[in-house]
Automatic annotation (TrEMBL):
Subcellular location: Cell membrane
Residue ranges of domain Major facilitator superfamily (MFS) profile in the record: 14-402
Organism per entry: Lysinibacillus pakistanensis
Protein's name according to its UniProt entry: MFS transporter
One GO CC term, this protein: plasma membrane
SUPFAM superfamilies: MFS general substrate transporter
InterPro entries recorded: MFS, MFS_dom, MFS_Na/Anion_cotransporter, MFS_trans_sf, Sugar_P_transporter
Keyword Glycoprotein: no
Length: 407
């Protein structure tokens, strides 16, 4: 059985279910950036401790990327998907009972371990059931979940934190995860994965190991690019609520309304990027990606030097479009240029860079803010530096090298 035997109706159903899972994962990650304002008050934490809490999830998530992708290739994507949702639902619920900084760090780290296999496994499912010319759009639909959630979370977080509190909020999110796991078990029906492993149009042995992946120059470019763009993304996402509250004087509800504007442009940017990427001629993707990173660097400078909150939000709105394009472009490169038999492993390897950035950046910003007496200027310069490195990584990307790549 091959992807051709999967009907369009079945593909759309699976895509919708994967979208639910991506949305829930994004919900927990985004809402934590608002909940941490209340958590730090309850647990009497400083900025450095806040950064460690925000980073703990990403350390676990990063550690699990490569094993999660390998497990999806080896034992089947659906099994890994189910285990990921079940585990992260358990630890999301356990976040509610954290009583100290240490407990919170351990729970968030284990939460990251639990969720770590979800992205490689779901990416493999997309590569398994969708033809190449539709994979960019399918991935863009998945990634729009981040924009949609970032649109909803600011106001939802402000309401929930002000009514039921952060502990009950995480219990509810964990329960929703259990429901999604049940839906996956019942409704996700995949082709026999061993049959899918050898696609006739790719002429590649499915017995590709991680050592061979790491010998492929394309993978190293992707790892670096993933790290850099996600350093920018998670640096902004994790600290903007705190920045706007402490440095610009906004309350949580005002922050919530202000962040809806960049969130809307992120949704449009990600969804539109998928259609654009699927139609780009070979080689043009890395050019547009590099230009986008250059614009991101310029806009980051304009953001932290903005004289007013409205101007800051305006620049953030524009920068979110270009970040959305690069974040959509990178997984599309994996899905389009590498054999689907190793998509899980390849996505896990590449995304490790992104999740390591999610671990390092929030923590680094926390230490910088403490070191510079509450100023975020050094943090913004660090993010600008990452944008510059991303330009170099994309410009030097060569998809004609390496025996794993399609001709």
């Amino acid at each position: 059985m091959t992807m051709n035997s999967v009907t369009k109706k079945s593909r759309n159903l699976i895509l919708a279910l994967l979208f639910l899972g991506w949305s829930l994962g994004n919900l927990d990650r985004y809402i934590m950036n608002y909940a941490v304002v209340s958590i730090t008050g309850d647990l009497s934490l400083d900025a450095s401790s806040t950064g460690i809490i925000l980073s703990a999830f990403f350390l676990g998530y990063a550690i699990m990327q490569i094993p999660g992708g390998w497990l999806a290739d080896k034992f089947g994507a659906k099994r890994v998907l189910l285990m990921a949702v079940i585990m992260w639902s358990i630890f999301t619920g356990l976040t509610a009972v954290a009583w100290s900084l240490t407990a919170m760090i351990v729970i968030r780290f284990l939460f990251g371990i639990g969720e770590g296999g979800f992205q490689p496994a779901s990416s493999k499912i997309i590569a398994t059931i969708f033809p190449k010319e539709e994979r960019g759009r399918a991935m863009s639909i998945m990634l729009t979940s981040g924009g949609i959630v970032s649109l909803i979370v600011p106001l939802l977080a402000a309401y929930l934190l002000g009514t039921i509190g952060w502990r009950m909020m995480f219990i509810i999110i964990g329960a929703i995860g259990a429901i999604i796991a049940l839906l996956y078990w019942k409704y996700i029906k995949l082709p026999q994965e061993q049959a899918v492993q050898v696609e006739r149009d790719e002429n590649v042995s499915p017995k590709v190991n991680l050592k061979e992946l790491f010998k492929t120059p394309l993978m190293w470019n992707l790892i670096i690019a993933y790290f850099c763009i996600y350093a920018v993304n998670w640096g902004l996402v994790s600290w903007i609520p705190t920045y706007l509250q402490k440095n610009r004087g906004l309350d949580l509800m005002s922050i919530g309304w202000a962040q809806t504007i960049p969130a809307i442009t992120t949704i449009i940017g990600v969804y539109g990027s998928g259609f654009i990427i699927d139609k780009l001629p070979r080689g043009m993707d890395k050019v547009l990606g590099s230009i986008s990173c250059a614009v991101i660097g310029i806009l980051l400078y304009l953001m932290f030097t903005a004289k007013s909150v409205s101007l800051f939000i305006s620049y953030q709105t524009v920068v979110s479009i270009f970040i959305a394009f690069v974040i959509t472009l990178l997984p599309a490169i994996v899905l389009k240029k590498l054999p689907s038999s190793i998509t899980g492993s390849a996505m896990g390897v590449a995304n490790t860079g992104g999740q390591l950035a999610g671990f390092v950046t929030p923590m680094a910003i926390g230490f910088m803010v403490d070191a510079f007496n509450g100023s975020f200027d050094a943090a913004f310069w660090m993010l600008i530096g990452f944008a510059a490195i991303c330009i170099i990584s994309l410009l030097t990307l060569n998809d004609q090298k390496g025996k794993l790549l399609n001709s």
